[in-house]
Design goal:
There is one protein chain. By secondary structure, this protein is of the alpha+beta class. The chain contains nine helices and 21 strands. The protein has helices at 35-45, 76-80, 116-123, 147-152, 175-178, 198-208, 242-245, 256-263, 270-273; strands at residues 10-11, 14-15, 23-29, 51-54, 62-69, 84-92, 94-96, 105-108, 128-132, 141-142, 145-146, 162-173, 185-192, 213-223, 226-227, 239-240, 251-253, 268-269, 283-286, 292-300, 303-309. The strands form five sheets. Strands 3, 4, 5, 6, 9, 12, 13, 14, 15 and 16 form a ten-stranded mixed β-sheet that branches. It has a five-stranded mixed β-sheet with strand order 17-19-20-21-18. It has a two-stranded antiparallel ribbon with strand order 1-2. The chain is elongated.
């Protein structure tokens, strides 16, 4: 575990010793840290053990990692569901045990004759809804165990392929950054659904080119509307309120009478909650004072139910 820098005693003007802290933190994860390392550090920063994260980043990867603190941990699954945007480098000509630069090289290929046009044409085949097999070194569970735990024991298991969506993919040879002497390096930019492994995508592109490839320098630039330019190192991060953090979902404000029903987790008619004409949800339901009360979702025709109810603190 790595610790550096001073731990703040105030977050957005609120003393940590004044009481519970709740909200979402947009962290720019440093290389060499696991997502769990960031959570552990944040527990010290915010003086609470109630911290979790949405969307694991590999240790070598950098970029946006969203943390939920306090009551906001209940909301993390809604951030995991958002689209992600990544940049990285695809290195043609070698495969690794982990599909990225952290693993051992297990195969090499002469791909010097592969042209940029061929790479672009092959990569375009992976845009849309595709089937993808999770890598062995990943947090996906098979039989109740994480794949990376099995991989450390030298166990390789069958993994079911699953549907993921690549919304946009751009790839180009990185002559500017690396020079024509290393034409096997390509810059990759991907917008994709939750559950997509970019290193699997890089490896699959290499295989489709009749060779092999691995990924390096992965950086997550965005989760939904949370972009890396807004992110900060974990020791300097500030919290967004729960209401502000749910900005990627339609929101609505309810009367005090409806708020009491929402806070008690009642199933409500669409008209009573006020979601008619407001899309298919989930919806962020706020009190008249702007506090997030719950996330509601479709239940059956004409009715909605709470997906998450946020316990309210006394003012």
């Amino acid at each position: 575990m790595k610790y550096y820098g001073a731990w703040p005693t105030r977050i957005k003007g609120v003393s940590l010793i004044d009481g519970p802290v709740d909200g979402i933190a947009v962290v720019d994860k440093a290389p060499g840290w696991t997502s769990h390392d960031v959570v552990a550090k944040a527990r010290g920063v915010f003086a609470t053990s109630k911290v979790g994260h949405a969307g694991t980043l590999d240790p070598d990867a950098t970029g946006v990692l969203l943390l939920g603190v306090g009551r906001a941990t209940r909301l993390l699954r809604f951030f995991t569901a958002l689209r992600k945007r990544y940049t990285g480098e695809v290195v043609l000509g070698s495969e690794t045990t982990t599909l990225d630069a952290s693993g051992e090289v297990i195969a090499t290929y002469d791909m010097s004759t592969v042209t940029p046009a061929q790479v672009v044409a092959v990569a375009s085949q992976f845009v849309g809804t595709i089937m993808q097999v999770p890598p062995m070194v990943s947090a996906v569970k098979v039989g109740g165990r994480r794949l990376h735990e099995l991989a450390r024991e030298g166990v390789v298991v069958q993994r079911r392929s699953r549907l993921v969506t690549v919304y946009a993919l751009g790839i180009a040879r990185d002559d500017a950054g690396f020079g024509a002497s290393v034409p096997e390096v390509y810059r990759l930019r991907v917008t994709c659904s939750s559950g997509t492994f970019v290193r699997s995508l890089a490896a699959d592109i290499g295989s489709a080119l009749k060779g092999g490839a691995h990924l390096r320098s992965l950086r997550r630039e965005a989760i939904g509307s949370f972009i890396v330019e807004q992110a900060k190192p974990v020791e300097a991060v500030e919290l967004l309120s729960m209401s502000e953090a749910m900005r990627d979902y339609p929101s609505l404000s309810v009367s005090d009478a409806v708020a009491r029903k929402v806070s008690s987790g009642q199933v409500l008619a669409n008209e009573e909650l006020g979601v008619v004409g407001r899309g298919e949800g989930p919806w962020a339901v706020q009190s008249s004072q702007g506090d997030l009360l719950a996330m509601y979702e479709m239940y059956k025709v004409g009715w909605v139910k709470p997906a998450v109810v946020i316990p309210q603190q006394r003012r």
